[in-house]
Amino acid sequence: TVFLPGAKIKWGASDIVTFSSPIDAEPTQIFNILSNGTIAITDSVRECYPEWFGAVTNNGSSGVAQTNLKALKFCVDIFPVTILQGADYFISDTLNITSPFRTIQGVYQGPSGDSYNAQTRILVTNGSSDVIKIHTPSAIPGNFNSWNQRITINDVQIARTVGPVVPASGNEINGPAGIRMEKVIWVLLNRVTVAEHFTGVLLNGTIRVTMNQVISQRVSAGTGSHAATNDKTYHFWLNGYIEFGLAGGNASTYFTDCTAGGYPPNKPDDTIAFYLPGAFVDTFMQRVECTKMGWGIYLDGSNLNANQQKTGCADVHIVTPILDAYRDWE
Q1: What H or E segment, with its residue span, contains residue 128?
Q2: CA atoms within 13 A on the CB side of 270
Q3: Which stretches within 3-132 are classed as H helix?
Q4: Cα 315 from chain centre
Q5: pLDDT recorded at residue 133
Q6: Cβ–Cβ contacts within 10 Å for residue 75, how many?
Q7: Residue 329 has what pLDDT?
Q8: Which 8-state DSSP code applies to residue 165?
Q9: Rounded CA separation 89/296 (Å)
């Protein structure tokens, strides 16, 4: 299906437009998503650009951020592969990924001749929202095959435009995250950067999550009423206290060449690179790196129930980590 330059389809709320062949169009608007129509695709249609649905890059105004969120959501709900340009996509709230077998493909920032390619960034325009949440809205306990699955994110920076809102003490797990995963199976993050979040990547009841060359960074100060007393950073947090029928809170988690660095101003001691509280069984770390913060790798197997105590803190592999520039050792 070929769209000539300037071509656009508009349709009403009761109309369904079905595409049975790949869509050939430039990354510019060809659909009017404000009409609330419905798109149906066949298996041969795989890729889309959010620009097709009205997304605008490199513009952080409130109206554009709202439109971008709708456009991105439309893509990840319907199309298997969402292709992003080397540009900034500002969004007004959390991008929820609830459909299985989805890929978000950005542009890697690497050398190209004597210059650097532009990097893809998704930036939420507030300090309180997660940027991306991968989850199963109505997960059935124990029925893992019904969970959202096979989600891949490649070559994207996940950031925010303002400092994160700091949660109250005891509510840290609900602090704003770059990527939050709940009740999902088979997630792959490749060359992803999460920047300026209270928690970089949070796993809260997952199976088979693999992270390759994922970087978490933070240098901005937290905001909100609790910032003065509770501004912390958890770069990678695997919550092992959640129970869903397996030995640990997150079954089979793999870190390879992942890096954590940075902390809020004057808060190095309140920062943890890899935080594994609870039942952290089946965690594999290879060549992870962190520098200049309170804790590099923090394993806390306390306060487990009787079932979790049996096997919940076994089978953890940490191979050739780099814990750099630490002042104190415990």
Answers
A1: none
A2: 20
A3: 62-78
A4: 26
A5: 98
A6: 25
A7: 44
A8: B
A9: 32
**In the numeric block, which tokens belong to residue 36?**
């609330």
- Sign of the Cα pseudo-torsion (8, 6, 119, 111, in order): positive
Q: Compute the average pLDDT of residues 120-145.
A: 90
Six token digits for residue 233: 């950073």
The partner residues of 202 in beta bridges, in order of sequence, read 180, 237
Strands 115-116 and 111-112: antiparallel
Alpha-carbon distance of 227 to 167, in angstroms, equals 8
293: helix, strand or coil: coil
Distances, alpha carbon 274 to alpha carbons 51, 85, 138, in Å: 36, 31, 29
Residue 65, classified by CB atoms within 10 Å of its CB into exposed (0-12), middle (13-18) or buried (19+), is buried
**Contacts with 255 (C-beta within 8 Å, 6 or more apart), sequence order:** 211, 214, 236, 274, 283, 284, 285, 286, 288
Nearest to 194 by CA among 185, 203, 186: 203
Buried-state track 238-253, b at ≥16 Cβ within 10 A, e below 16? bbbbbbbebbbbbbbb
Give 272: exposed, middle or buried? Use CB within 10 Å, 0-12, 13-18, 19+.
Answer: buried
**Closest Cα to residue 302, out of 271, 277, 272?**
277
φ, ψ of residue 48 to 5 degrees: the values are -150, 160
| Residues paired with 9 in a beta bridge | 31
The three-point CA angle 281-282-286 to 5° equals 125
The reply to whether the predicted model has a pTM over 0.90 is yes
Dihedral sign, CA of 141, 303, 259, 268? positive
Question: Smallest Cα–Cα separation from 205: which of 235, 247, 234, 255?
Answer: 247
User: Cβ of 228: how many Cβ atoms within 10 Å?
Assistant: 9
Question: By percentage, how much of the chain surpasses pLDDT 70?
Answer: 93
Determine contact, residues 269/296, Cβ cutoff 8 Å: no
**Residue in the block written with tokens 């003065």:** 228
Q: Which helix (H) or strand (E) holds 157?
A: strand 157-160
Q: What does the block give as tokens for 103? A: 């890929």
